[in-house]
């Protein structure tokens, strides 16, 4: 697999996102070369520092960002499934941001159009995955969660 996220890995993460987004009745995302590049660069930085923390780009709202670490080479679908599983802690009756559901809400955020995926291995074999979203989700303005995080269709 080497250092970087293969096109196949990125496609796998994208497909998992779009399968989940479909359940929530929101439009599919498209991969973006520029977001892929940024996500890849940041994944490599994380693999070097081995500290899982959000980038300055995401902190200042330039993009949304989901991060994942695993002690092994994680498949794209597993990463997406782990993020999505936070749905069990999300209250559609009481929508809004919480640290335990931010990965899930970023994935299904209705107004997000594009994503990028990066993956890098640390010297100990652990892997860091970065997903970037544009426009960013998890916007805490009033009404935004209600409009963008829709309950799954039965």
UniProtKB/TrEMBL annotation:
Pfam families: CAP. It is found in: Golgi apparatus membrane. Residues 8-141 form the SCP domain. Its main location: Golgi. CDD domains: CAP_GAPR1-like. Belongs to the CRISP family. InterPro entries: Allrgn_V5/Tpx1_CS, CAP_dom, CAP_sf, CRISP-related, SCP_GAPR1-like. One of its GO terms (biological process) is positive regulation of epithelial to mesenchymal transition. The gene is GLIPR2. It is a lipid-anchor. The keyword Transmembrane helix does not apply. Keywords: Coiled coil, Golgi apparatus, Lipoprotein, Membrane, Myristate. GO terms for molecular function: protein homodimerization activity. Homodimer. Interacts with CAV1. The keyword Membrane applies. This is Golgi-associated plant pathogenesis-related protein 1.
